[in-house]
Amino acid sequence: MRIAQIAPLHEAVPPKLYGGTERVVSYLTEALVELGHSVTLFASGDSKTSAKLDAVWPQALRLDPLIRDTMAPHMLLLEQVWRRSKEFDVLHFHIDYYPFSLFSRQLIPYLTTLHGRLDLPELQPLFNIFQNVRVVSISDNQRNPLPQANWLSTVYHGLPIDLLMPCTDIKPSYLAFLGRISPEKRLDTAIRIAQQCAMKIKIVAKLDKSDRTYYEEQIKPLMSLPHVEYIGEISETEKAKFLSGAHALLFPIDWPEPFGLVMIEAMACGTPVIAFKCGSVPEVIENGVSGFVVEDELSAVVAVNQLHTLSRAGVRAAFEARFTSKIMAQHYVHVYEKLLHYSHRTIMREVTVR
């Protein structure tokens, strides 16, 4: 099958540091190539891939200090994909609703995976108009605000099976927080949970400019507490050691998290996840197997004290059974085939399985 993967241009594919969507696009692209498909990746020029790369912009927009209008490169991206669209069986977008208008007016089958939060009122009129656009959710819970959308399927994220492995020579000695410093991620709650458990917490987190005021007012004063260690951002190669060294990953969100890639990153390392019952959490975490799904801070503290009942090998096994990139790619191939069937189209090129 000839497949176009269209990534955002904000980060490279894969991103050098933080970047959930671009990371998933990378894992999916590589897994599709491994399955024998012909894949073209539309992304920034500093991306690394075994697929064919169409470099729409020289480097990731986040790393270009001269970029003031991030929309302009994305309009160029849409035009470039449109001009080449007849070369593909399927166009797979990962750039929200940007392609809806233009690509609804052409015949090549396309779909969009929605990676972000959908509980925004301004999205309602958009999806009322584009009810025929086929979209994929990354959790069933993510769909709730937009029942009128034309949902093709839910496909959970996946990681390469050997990307993050348990470091069995490291003895867990702290609780971990990994993600972004923002109000909905509730780093402050994670710090309080660790304090109530009399345990150290290590924090690996990205801070966006938009969250700087929140950080200065709400989080920075907590960073000087004796049980808190703020590391900052780390690379992909450092994650296994960081997560393997944790008794558990704390994920005390209070927003409808569409998926939460960090949860399966922890699971890949055999590290249990203690997460608040919001958004996708109950779909990702098997309570009592890969971690604990809790209601509040008090129950999170209780869960920390119950970690000895979980098997880290069992946590890793739960990851391998559900959340590898090969499983994700296989699910997407099924979605592509369904899309082609709906569009009454045949595949232009046979698949050669490696």
From TrEMBL:
The organism's place on the tree of life at top rank: Bacteria
InterPro entries: Glyco_trans_1 (IPR001296), Glyco_trans_4-like_N (IPR028098)
Positions in coiled-coil regions: none
Enzyme class name: transferase
GO molecular function, one term: glycosyltransferase activity
Keyword entries, A-Z: Glycosyltransferase, Transferase
Domain Glycosyltransferase subfamily 4-like N-terminal residue range list: 18-119
EC number of this enzyme: 2.4.1.-
Domain Glycosyl transferase family: 171-300
Pfam families documented for this protein: Glyco_transf_4, Glycos_transf_1
The protein's name in its UniProt record: Glycosyltransferase
Protein's organism: Candidatus Vallotiella hemipterorum
